[in-house]
Amino acid sequence: MQEDKFYEVKKEILKEIEKNETxxxxxxxxxxxxxxxxxxxxxxxxxxxxxxxxVYTAGVDIRTLDFLSKMNHPSLEDYDDALVxxxxxxxxxxxxxxxxxxxxEKIIKIDHHPDEDSYGDIExxxxxxxxxxxxxxxxxxxxxxxxxxxxxxxxxxxAGMVGDTNRxxxxxTSPKTMRLAxxxxxxxxxxxxxxxxxxxxxxxxxxxxxxxxxHLEVSENGVGSVILTDELLDSFGLTDEDTHQIVSxxxxxxxxxxxxxxxxxxxxxxxxxxxxxxxxxxxxxKEHRGGGHPLASGANAEDMTEINEILAxxxxxxxxxKKNLKQLA
Length: 329
Ligand code: AMP
Known about the structure:
The chain has helices spanning 7-19, 33-49, 98-101, 132-142, 151-165, 175-185, 191-199, 203-215, 230-236, 282-286, 304-328; strands at residues 22-26, 54-57, 83-87, 106-111, 122-125, 217-218, 223-228, 258-264, 270-276, 291-293, 296-301. The two termini are 33 Å apart. It has 11 helices and 11 strands. By secondary structure, the protein is of the alpha/beta class. Residues 28, 30, 32, 91, 94, 247, 273, 290-293, 296-298 line the site of adenosine monophosphate.
């Protein structure tokens, strides 16, 4: 067993949780199953272990993630003397509900994105973890003599792990991820049902899936792209929120190395959902008002000109990646 280099910071976090009567948990804007799963999973872990504490979850409710849990929305007064824990969020500007956090007493950051923005009084950042849900599961297991996790909490955390690893497919999945997932599976919830729910799509999203496969443009170097205009999403009866289910699709096509799905927003600008099977893309995302993981990032583009700039950079990293592969062969 490897030495746990985060044990001391985890102990400090536990001490803060034990000390505070009110705990408010935040996560990033436009949440995914890991953001919500880790948030409501941690809330459930704390509430089950310390029934007298007041535990709140902050941020907007997301229709497509209703199968997890809704937020219980703290009021501004609840922040007085509260401990604020922010999960899965690399940069302070991306915190959902960021306006309220400084009304709290102390801020703890727990995250698995590359460490860029230090905004917490206490920080546990481990980019080697598959997901923030993995970190929260690790926290539970590290202090299982003091913390108890309900079946519901285990389901939330399992959903987060499944979401961020794409069912344990992505590179971030480690033996530790599987060991912690196994701990969660010991609890009484149906992982099969949960996977089915997460895997299921509406007939509208099924049609969008067909559209993506049919209209994906793939360059000679393996760069994929699809533009989803506001009008097009409207014609499918879908919104930006629904696009999380189609982001990974291009990766299953032979020859596609890195890709972008560009989703037009109400203001005409584009949300860029960027993914890769090898070339590192988060540096490119950062150059376009975004960031994220080396192989899964997000950015913002003003218009088609900026989208084309991003795609041109994708070509360069794809060429470089292939060249390096050849040299290694
Ligand atoms: P998404 O395509 O929104 O699922 O984002 C993929 C990854 O990139 C997630 O880990 C996000 O946290 C990160 N990300 C997305 N948008 C941004 C942004 N504007 N700034 C920083 N990170 C982002």
